[in-house]
Design goal:
By secondary structure, this protein is an all-alpha fold. It contains twelve helices and two strands, in the order ααααααββαααααα. The chain folds into two domains: 209 residues, no CATH class; 38 residues, no CATH class. The radius of gyration is 24 Å and the shape is globular. The N and C termini lie far apart (52 Å).
Length: 275
C-alpha cells in the first residue's frame, strides 16, 4: 500500500494517540488548567499547535474500529487533509468550478475497466491540448524516502498492534500473568492471527487450546514483538511532528508498553502483598 488511504490515516491516528507530548498539548488546549504538567516546553507547545488544529483531541482508544461510528465522525470532516476529494454531483446547480479540477460527464459501463479506459482516453487528450493549474495536494502525505513510502503498511500495522497489549490498565491488573512468558503467551493467543504470523497446525493447537509453546519458538516470537514495539515508539514520536510513517530519531515522550507493563506488575504485587 503505497498511497495515502483511510487505513494509513487510522494507523497515524493510533500512533499519535499514544504520544504523551500530544496528549499534554490536548489537555492544555482544551482548557484543563488544573492538570499539573511540569517542565512543559512552550516551544514544543507551539510546534504541536498546528497538528492539534487539524487532528483535534484524540479521545478514542487505539482499538478504534475503522467501520465504527466514532471513527467516521472523526475522519470524514478531515478526509480532505489526507486524500484528494472525489465526489459525484447529483444536482447540476451544485457544480462549482475549482482550480485544478474539471467537471466530467462519465457514462458508466457495465464493467469498470471499460469506464476507466474511456476516462483515460479523454484525459490523455485533455492533458495534450490544455494548460491548467495544478491541483493543490492534501496537506498530509505519507513520509517517503527516495520516492517510496518509508516503511511498509504491514510493518507499521504490526507495530501498532503490539502497542495494544497493555492499552487498558484495568484489564491488565485483573488478568496479569505471573511471568513474562505467561504474558507473551496470552498476547500471542489473542493477536497472532491479526498479526498475520503463522504456526504449524500442532503448534497452533498447543498455543490456542493449551497455552503452550516451546521455548525456542517463543524466543523467535518474542524478538519479533520487541522489534515491533521499538518501531511503534519511533512511529509514535514522529507522528507528533506530522511525519508518518517515520522511524528516525526524534525526541518525544511516547507510550512504552514494556515499561508500563512492569509498572503495573509492581502495582499489582504491592496490592497483593497488602492483602
Amino acid at each position: 500500500m503505497t498511497r495515502m488511504t483511510e487505513e494509513w490515516v487510522l494507523l497515524w491516528y493510533q500512533c499519535l494517540y499514544r504520544n504523551f507530548d500530544y496528549e499534554k498539548h490536548c489537555q492544555l488546549s482544551d482548557g484543563l488548567d488544573d492538570i499539573d504538567i511540569p517542565n512543559w516546553d512552550q516551544a514544543r507547545y507551539e510546534q504541536l499547535d498546528e497538528l492539534y488544529n487539524d487532528f483535534g483531541t484524540l479521545n478514542e482508544t487505539v482499538n478504534v474500529d475503522i467501520n465504527g461510528e466514532a471513527w467516521k465522525q472523526w475522519f470524514e470532516p478531515r478526509r480532505h487533509l489526507f486524500i484528494p476529494l472525489i465526489k459525484s454531483i447529483d444536482v447540476f446547480s451544485n457544480v462549482v468550478a475549482r482550480e485544478g479540477c474539471i467537471t466530467l460527464e462519465i457514462p458508466l459501463h457495465l464493467h469498470l475497466q471499460d469506464t476507466q479506459k474511456l476516462v483515460m482516453d479523454y484525459l490523455e487528450k485533455y492533458y495534450e491540448n490544455n494548460q491548467f493549474i495544478k491541483f493543490e495536494p492534501p496537506k498530509y502525505k505519507l513520509h517517503t524516502v527516495n520516492g517510496r513510502v518509508a516503511h511498509g503498511y504491514e510493518q507499521v500495522r504490526q507495530a501498532v498492534i503490539t502497542s495494544k497489549e497493555y492499552s487498558d490498565e484495568g484489564d491488565l491488573l485483573k488478568s496479569i500473568a505471573p511471568t513474562v512468558k505467561g504474558n507473551m503467551i496470552k498476547f500471542l493467543q489473542r493477536e497472532i492471527d491479526n498479526l498475520g504470523w503463522t504456526l504449524d497446525p500442532k503448534a497452533k493447537d498447543d498455543l490456542m487450546n493449551k497455552g503452550l509453546m516451546d521455548q525456542e519458538r517463543l524466543e523467535v516470537f518474542k524478538a519479533r514483538i520487541n522489534r515491533c514495539r521499538r518501531e511503534f515508539l519511533a512511529l509514535s514520536k514522529n507522528a507528533s511532528r506530522g511525519r508518518f510513517p517515520d522511524m528516525s530519531e526524534f525526541e518525544s515522550d511516547s507510550f512504552d508498553v514494556i515499561r508500563f507493563a512492569y509498572k503495573l506488575q509492581d502495582m499489582s504485587l504491592r496490592e497483593r502483598n497488602k492483602s
